[in-house]
Amino acid sequence: MDTRERMEDVREADLHTEHQILNMGPSHPATHGTVKFVIELDGETVVDLDVQVGYLHRGFEKECESGSWYQCIPYTDRLNYNSAILANLGFCMAVEKLLQLETPERCQWLRVMAGELSRLGDHLTRCGAACLELQAMTPFLYGIEARELTWDLQEILCGARVTSNYIRIGGVKHDMPPSFPHAAREMIGKIRALLRDYDAVVTQNRIFVDRLKGTGMLSKEDCIRYAVTGPVLRAAGVPLDVRKDEPYLTYDQIDFDVPVGEVGDNFDRYLVCVEEMHQSLRIVEQCLVKLENLGPGPVNVDDRRVRWPAKGRVFNQMEELIQQFKSVTEGPRVPAGEGYFAIESANGELGFYLVSDGSAVPVKVRCRPPSFINTAPLPLMVRGAMLPDIIPTFDFVNMIGGECDR
Amino acid sequence: MAEDHGSRVLRRLLDRCGAAVVDTHARLGDATAIVRKEQLSLVMRTLRDDPELAFDMLTDLTCVDYLGEEPRFEMVYHLYSIAKNQRLRVKARVSEQACEIDTLCPLWASANWMEREVWDLYGVRFTGHPDLRRILLYEEFQGHPLRKDYPKERRQPLVGPNN
Question: Cβ A238–B60 below 8 Å, yes or no?
């Protein structure tokens, strides 16, 4: 048998092939998060995936357990830095649960409005960055321009753009400035126009749709097994939203819809996110009307345990001076007990489980991070798919390193 | 006042596996059951599979270190039932000497990463866990930093392939 005959005899099945291991990350330009994937590849097909998180672990819980309750709030800003106000809100409401505090109505409407602006910014980042990572620069810029507008509004509201530190235990930092409603309405108009432009470029775009449709599927049952929440779960057809199921603040008085998808692929996730942005704008508008009708009122509870006395009284009354001194040096004391409180953050259920022993220092500050829990089923979503499908799937799971790794 | 759903859930749980439950309460409106750690899997399976309970989601799982108390650690599980829109907290004490508890991975896939996190940060082992590696810290890290006796100021070298 000569060489040529032998060559013809070798079929593909007889060739020695082996799976290739590919490291992707931890700082990969196509993932908007610091995470490492160890991918087992058969050609271009993903056989298995090991997601290695933890690169942004900063000891959030350890830090919280060594300061006062108030000192935790700036740390919560840095959990999900795209929607800092929502993390503030989750933590403060959990502390209020332990203190059994009810915040004034005006404060609740302000909190809802600030939270929805925050959610809007988060979704804009997710949808914008997803386009960028699929090599579409223009829609990314539309998304980021709209996010800038939400950040401008946050700046008017609380003085900071990203790490807002706006929500306080028992209230908010201060009421909105008189110029806010006008600025907000103007910017809502601009954001709607940008969303229209974004929609026109992306939603019908053949390349974008092809990369998203049918990729990264996660069934309803698997979502529930993995305790996935937020847009990823809703895209799979489960209308679960803490704002509707266990309404907190004033969500039971607000008219908004919870969009759901059909099959649970990346395209459904995209559509759910876009619709949620429109719903958030609706909620902000309702809050503005309500706040204007309510008229001026307190935005903080009148409770000495958590709020400082008014400055005028501190300077003139002995009792208030002592109170202020104790509040500043010690911080509030929270009654002994435990409590879990969950809100709907941009990524899903953001819960805080707090344990207090009655002192001014928390025993336990557990953050139930939706990013961490939603990232766990990622191998399930991409097994058997092509290598490039990891990118849009990871985009729409929207793992935020700060919140995932804490 | 009509009985709320939380106390109905707790009563049903006591009916089904009363021997495994040490105590129940509903402070601050959070229905809570404290169970024996040996019977944790049994209780959790009942909570998931009983049609009147139907807790289909393990939303959260964490641990608290009560240094100085015996048993030292407390595992805290938060369950949610989509159909009943009801939450339940289940707790089980774990001692420092026998620092392990049954894994819940066969019941809920969400337990996998959260149990790895508890192992990483508290050093509680999960018997039967398919892949009990550190998750937030690196393999060479020594100790479990969320234990109350781990000093906050302690620094460890970052270990890379070449040093």
Answer: no
- Give every CB contact of residue B123 below 8 A, 6+ residues apart in sequence: B99, B143, B144, B147
Q: pLDDT digits over A115-147, tens only?
A: 999 999 999 998 888 888 888 888 889 989 999
Please give the model's pTM, rounded to 2 decimal places.
Answer: 0.87
Strand duo A364-368 + A348-356: pairing: antiparallel
Q: Where are the beta strands (DSSP E) in B8-159?
A: 21-25, 32-35, 57-65, 73-81, 86-94, 100-102, 125-127
Give the bridge partners for A366, in sequence order.
A353
Chain A positions touching B146 (Cβ under 8 A) are 61-62, 65
Q: Which domain holds residue B110?
A: 5-127
CA distance B94 to B56: 25
Answer whether residue B154 is part of any domain. Answer: no
Give dist(CA A341, CA A353) in Å, integer.
Answer: 7
Chain A residue with minimum CA distance to B146: A62
If you search the block for the tokens 């793992």, which residue do you land on?
A: A399
CATH number of the domain at B108, please. 3.30.460.80
Reported as a single tens digit per residue, the pLDDT across B111-145 is 999 999 999 999 999 999 998 888 998 888 888 99
Q: How far apart are CA A153 and CA A288, in angstroms?
A: 13
Cα-Cα-Cα-Cα dihedral sign, residues B46, B52, B56, B57: negative
A224 touches chain B (CB under 8 A): yes
What is chain B's length?
163
- Hey, what domains does chain A have and what are their CATH numbers? 3-48 (no CATH), 59-301+332-405 (1.10.645.10)
A349 interfacial to chain B (CB closer than 8 Å): yes
